[in-house]
Write a structure and sequence with these properties.
This protein is an alpha+beta fold and 109 residues long. Helices cover 26% and strands 26% of the residues. It has a five-stranded antiparallel β-sheet. The protein is globular.
């Protein structure tokens, strides 16, 4: 299931870095699937949305480190069809509604 993260970077994302992320990164124990990268406007190339399809141990941080950058802030904002509610405070959670659960089950197929 795709997971989208809002990522703040220590350095601006270069086109070469974005291309590497889009092709997948090879690590010692696995190769990541290609990621989708969207640079947020007016962020000086330092705020991106990164969508991945796995979710390995610290994968986002490891991917950015592999292309020569560093994550300074990270938040998952979407999982499959579900977006994080804007009024949900950091570190808090709520139960899924029946509709949201149905959306996830439908997306899984």
């Amino acid at each position: 299931m795709p997971k989208t993260y809002l990522v703040t970077l220590a350095s601006p994302l270069t086109p070469a870095m974005a291309q590497q992320l889009a092709h997948g990164i090879t690590f010692q124990e696995f190769t990541s699937a290609p990621a989708t990268v969207v640079v947020r406007p007016a962020s000086g190339q330092r705020l991106i949305e990164l969508t991945i399809h796995e979710g390995k141990f610290h994968q986002v941080k490891r991917m950015l480190k592999a292309v020569g950058n560093q994550v300074t802030a990270l938040a998952r904002v979407q999982m499959g069809p579900l977006q994080l509610p804007p009024d949900l405070a950091p570190g808090h959670y709520r139960s899924l509604t029946a509709e949201e659960l149905g959306q996830l089950l439908k997306a899984k197929k």
